[in-house]
Design a protein that fits this description.
GO terms for molecular function: zinc ion binding. It contains 13 helices and 42 strands. The chain is α+β, with helices and mostly antiparallel strands and 656 residues long.
């Protein structure tokens, strides 16, 4: 029995599980599955029967008239965390539609409401807006905010004045609030002391606050504010607008601040850093000298926190709190320090992840990192053909949410690809909902592939929690190490690391050995280095000729004899004459024609890795480049031009 989810590309079948041996969890409610369930085995998606039928007809993606500039994505996974619907303003939980680019969420009722319902809701919101949004009642010390009651959860609430059940519109104090000058929800919290220095500030009004008073606090970043500053938004907005108008250019503000603080040696700006910063000479003794604002290396004069070694360039410490930028002329952009949750910190201009300071329009959720905020749009460079053709949003079979294109270039922050487990640096695709991240190259990995060494069956990309790799003989990554994705044969039960499976696509047959040899290059070397660092420091693959370890360079491996050879130990001919090209070809450790990131073998016309060994024509620079196995194929090789010092080695390898 199968059903089709509107939000999943494959049909899901009904499967029975053995409760003692099968550990499966529902992707919707995250509870363990007992008995039978619906599953897409290819994608490792498991759902309770009730959970599957609850979302069966919900589309994966919708366009809503109140948020037409971005698509809204179905979010049905994980525990039912409460959220505030941005249309009806009711607190809801569970399945919803959310924007993958900005913090906009709708409950299911509002997501599929008719146009008449939207009109009625707008009228009700207009009538509510005519009421006073906040009021100060003598029964409570803090201002009370206008709400619409939603009976969400197990408890009903009574009015604290008349003790009757709450219905409809009411004034209250529900602990979760939003403020236009901060993008995350703020939670009413007990008194907070960030440290023991004794100076505590409100991040809205920037005035000193009493650490014994309750505050509104952001759980995602260190943003703390007075209760009255959060609730009295209109008053706060008026003060900030009046203080910042007329707008002044960034250069003028920076020079003005520099003149005002030129002689100051202590800088106190709570928006930047919670501790005072001292002006001094930054030396190499500090270790990693990266500015907390621009994330560039700092050398020379700057501001430093002597308590936690937080440092800023002198110019970065004097950045204006507000700028007007030509990329977003309709509103001012306000300066923010980085949050501790970087999953949504992507610059809207360059698509770079940023971990330093940034400028934000709270109304539009428009963000610029310091690089783009401090330069004119014309200085940011032209878009290449590859960049213009690149998909900026897409779905991938390994993940249920939409992935967005971005660049990961921070020198200090380390993130690993959820597929290959290697470090992310450069072009990547990222989920802003849960932080799932993939190399752009891993995104192109096939869900199914066939390799010559295992030609009888198809290998499928899925996660495996135990066993070893049939190619390199090393263990698979343990199940506790996030999800361990590997290529595996479901018929034979053999598994391969991703880096190893890619290495099996091009076999090489030489007269010097009876079996095919497989090239393990750059990708495997990076994987092997990670494996030794995090999994098994004693793991090693050694050359059968010289006895030295094979890490740090490319090598060939026989999967039947389980022996390895460095390329120089295998005595590959340095220069050959082949039928596939008119001139002699020279062995090179790598060749990159240009920066297009598209590299092909001119013999078989298939893609090749730019950092792998190739045969190359020196008489036709950039015209002819070929895989080693293509250039050495028996049908095409006419003669070898072998250096004299290699002939002795060849006589040894023939005996293998």
């Amino acid at each position: 029995m199968e059903i089709k989810l509107a939000s999943h590309e494959h049909s899901i079948g009904y499967h029975s599980l053995d409760d003692e041996t099968d550990d499966k969890w529902c992707e919707k409610c995250t509870e363990k599955i007992c008995g039978a369930a619906y599953a897409c085995v290819k994608c490792e998606l498991w759902l309770h029967e009730l959970c599957a039928k609850a979302i069966q007809y919900l589309p994966r993606e919708i366009t809503h008239p109140l948020h037409s500039h971005h698509h809204l994505m179905l979010d049905w996974s994980g525990p039912a965390a409460p959220f505030t619907c941005d249309l009806c303003l009711k607190i809801s939980s569970g399945t919803n539609y959310t924007c993958c680019r900005c913090p906009f969420e709708l409950d299911l009722v509002c997501a599929f409401a008719s146009s008449d319902d939207h009109v009625a809701r707008k009228k009700r919101q207009r009538s509510n807006s005519e009421r006073k949004q906040t009021m100060q009642h003598y029964c409570h010390i803090h201002p009370l905010v206008l709400y619409e009651y939603s009976n969400e959860g197990e408890h009903d609430y009574n009015c604290r004045w008349c003790d009757k059940p709450l219905t409809g519109i009411f004034y209250g104090f529900p602990p979760l609030a939003k403020h236009r000058y901060h993008r995350h929800p703020l939670l009413l919290n007990q008194p907070i002391r960030e440290d023991e220095i004794g100076e505590y500030y409100c991040d809205i009004c920037e005035k000193e606050r009493d650490p014994t008073h309750e505050v509104y606090y952001c759980q995602k970043c260190t943003y703390i504010a007075h209760i009255e500053c959060v609730l009295n938004q209109e008053e706060t907005s008026t003060k900030q607008d009046s203080s910042s108008s007329p707008p002044i250019s960034m250069d003028a503000k920076a020079s003005e601040l520099k003149e005002m603080e030129q002689t100051e040696t202590i800088l106190v700006r709570p928006v930047f850093h919670k501790h005072p910063l001292k002006f001094c000479e930054v030396t190499e003794n500090l270790g990693e000298r990266v500015c907390g604002a621009c994330r560039l290396e700092l050398s020379g004069p700057g501001y430093i926190c002597q308590g936690c070694l937080y440092i800023l360039h002198e110019n970065c410490a004097k950045l204006p709190d507000e700028i007007q930028h030509p990329l977003h002329p309709q509103h001012h952009l306000n300066l923010y320090a980085t949050s501790t949750s970087p999953d949504q910190n992507i610059c809207d201009k360059c698509q770079d992840f940023y971990f330093g300071f940034f400028y934000l329009c709270e109304q539009c959720d428009f963000k610029l990192d310091l690089k783009c905020a401090t330069q004119a749009p014309s200085e940011s460079g032209r878009t290449t053909l590859k960049e213009s053709e690149r998909e900026t949003e897409l779905f991938h079979f390994t993940h249920k949410h939409k992935l967005l294109f971005c660049n990961f270039t921070d020198p200090l922050v380390k993130r690993q690809c959820n597929l290959c487990r290697l470090q992310i640096f450069g072009p990547t695709y990222h989920c802003m909902s849960c932080g799932w991240i993939l190399h752009e190259s891993c995104l192109r990995l096939p869900q199914e592939m066939q390799v010559p060494f295992h030609s009888q069956h198809t290998l499928t990309l899925s996660y495996t929690s135990y066993g070893g790799c049939h190619a390199c003989s090393l263990k698979l990554l343990p199940s506790g190490y996030h999800k361990s994705y590997n290529y595996g044969c479901k018929d034979c039960g053999v598994n391969y690391h991703i880096a190893c499976a890619i290495s099996l696509t091009r076999p090489l047959k030489l007269d010097s050995h009876m079996h095919h040899l497989y090239y393990f290059g750059t990708d495997f070397d990076r994987f092997f280095a990670m494996y030794r660092d995090f999994i098994d420091i004693y793991a090693g693959l050694f050359c059968s000729h010289c006895g030295e370890i094979c890490s740090g360079q490319s090598f060939y491996r026989c999967l039947e004899c389980f022996i390895n050879f460095h390329l120089e130990c295998l005595s590959l001919p340095q220069i050959i004459k082949s039928k596939c090209h008119i001139h002699p070809l020279t062995l090179k450790d790598s060749y990159i024609e240009d920066d297009s990131e598209e590299h092909y073998c001119d013999a078989c016309e298939e893609k090749r890795h730019p950092n792998h060994h190739v045969y190359y024509c020196e008489e036709c620079p950039g015209i002819f480049v070929a895989h080693i196995d293509c250039a050495l194929s028996k049908e095409e090789v006419v003669s070898f031009l072998v250096p004299r010092e290699m002939k002795k080695r060849r006589s040894w390898t023939r005996g293998i």
